[in-house]
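EI: anyone free to look at a 388-residue chain?
SC: sure, send it
EI:
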Amino acid sequence: MRHAGLAAEILAYLFWLMVDALGAISLGTARVGLATVVTGLVLAGVVLLRRRPGTGVLRVAGLAYGLSLLVTVGSLVLGMPTMTFTEQLALAVVTVAALRGAGDRAALLVCGAAVVAIVGSPAFRPGFGGTESAFTMLSALGWGGTIGIGLVVRETEARRRNLLADVRAAERMDLARELHDVVAHQVTGIIVAAQAAGVVARTSGGAVDSDVDRALLAIENAGAEALTAMRRMVGVLRGQGEGGPQEGARTPGADLADIGEMVRRFDPDGHLVRLSTDPGMEHAVLPAGVAATGFRVVQEALTNVRRHAPAASTVEVEIRIRDEVLVVGVRNDGVRAGGTNPIGGESGFGLAGMGERVAALDGLLQAGPTAPGVWTVTARLPLVGGAT
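SC: here you go
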């Protein structure tokens, strides 16, 4: 369910509002009961604001803590016991949410503000027995549990971000390798052509213009230096020291012509996958990196089908060129009802890596449900005007 978290949070607030209302009724004062319910409703509503797109969770947390402190001051002035379970739950929820993406300094501020709001409320509001009351002790335990959960979530989120950064960096390095192979091939051709021109000029029997000879030699030297510098730079980017993998040990990037073989390995019987391409697509000459990226998108999407949609009865792989754009699409009908189908590995890292690779070529990657039970991955890679 797309909004399961929101629904669960609202239901929790409604439950504790009912408990607060019943408790207020037991006090026998309509004024206190109304203040208690209104306090819980307002704090819960403020905390729910963090779910609005573009709303900073730290600002919402600060507003919630501030309102809680205002209620405490108002309770002291009016002598009204307005402590509510709904308020405590809302403060705990916003504390965990704020700690999730907070930096070190912000996390310290959140912990300090939370202890003042969560523990200070029952300690100072009238009608709860002060700092020695059981309610205050329970609130202190609740604050400790909230901070513990928030810090665990924060650490988990930090690890996920680091893994995501590693995946994106790995895709950049793979793309750099493939571009290196293409450029190295072209530069080598220039060097060979310059060397051949020099040999022809010297063996043609006529006088060789010294300027031409120097120009050809300069082209040859510049090309050789460019190859050396490029190999060194790619090696540094890939973390290859003197003891690392050698340049010749690297495997070249795959091509669109290899997709047919990949599909045959994925579906040996030929009953599951349907491959559709434009005529002659396997022999098309595409810009550097585009063909390899198209291959990788299909590879990740098929891996996704194997891992997350084993019940799929039909998988469609389509490769077309439309308006100077290579369009690669993979559709499967094995999405479980109410489930998600992230491309690649856990937490959608495969999708992030493919998105990084496609974006490097000024392309667009889309993945998501397109019909009931159908998941579609589509990559659009420009053939002109994009990165090469």
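EI: Residues 88 and 118 are 6 Å apart (CA to CA).
SC: 👍
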